[in-house]
């Protein structure tokens, strides 16, 4: 009985840590801004603010690989896609976390549309599949997300996202649930080349986080991002390089104790 309880506790920890990593490894542009992402317009918005998908320029596909603290066993691979139509934008994502002994796979589909001249919104449905030992073998959970994006002026843009507002439950043990996370972000465009952002994030299981970031585009084909955040305290940096229709994205976060967490992505825009 004691061994079973210990095994259950370890499995519980692994699964909860895995869901935390899935919510953190949402895309390299988010990584580059210390997790500040509710106001980001890119194909990875399907992972953090589906309402922003309406603002992308065309059909896009992307892949990314995130390695927290340089640990292979905690890595996450992401595949994302956005399909733009006359009625709105459909988004798809698939994420895989873990190794051969424990895995969490998430598949999601979302839809984003204009709600007004300067307002867009979106909803997303997620299917999570867990395989982590005897206690979490082939376990499935469904969750939802929603997001909003608005241009208050030509310079001031805001975004709001809520992940898992329904508090979807993983297991009765320790009342485990898929993380519920809310984020609000505001960005001020000083020019086409310089954007300053700030925001707050609340994971219902952790203290409030404050984040700020900057995006600077020194040339037409290169943009640089950086950010800092609290709870946990970290700094981040990233770079985008445009090669015709292909974009390479590299970012990393630096935790004051645990070290580096690199994130690399490739994006292809069809139009």
List the helices and strands and how they pair.
Blueprint lengths: L1 H23 L3 H5 L12 H4 L11 E7 L9 E10 L2 E11 L3 E15 L2 E14 L6 E13 L4 E8 L5 E3 L4 E2 L3 E9 L4 E10 L5 E11 L2 E8 L4 E10 L2 E10 L3 E11 L2
Antiparallel strand pairs: 1-2, 1-16, 2-3, 3-4, 4-5, 5-6, 6-7, 7-10, 8-9, 10-11, 11-12, 12-13, 13-14, 14-15, 15-16
Structure description:
By secondary structure, the chain is mainly β. The chain has one domain (2-269): Beta Barrel (Porin), CATH 2.40.160.60. It contains three helices and 16 strands. The strands form two sheets. The protein has a 14-stranded antiparallel β-barrel with strand order 1-2-3-4-5-6-7-10-11-12-13-14-15-16. The protein has a two-stranded antiparallel ribbon with strand order 8-9. β5 (119-132) and β6 form a beta hairpin. The longest helix has 23 residues, at 2-24. The chain is globular and about 50 Å long. The model is unreliable at 1-12 (pLDDT under 50).
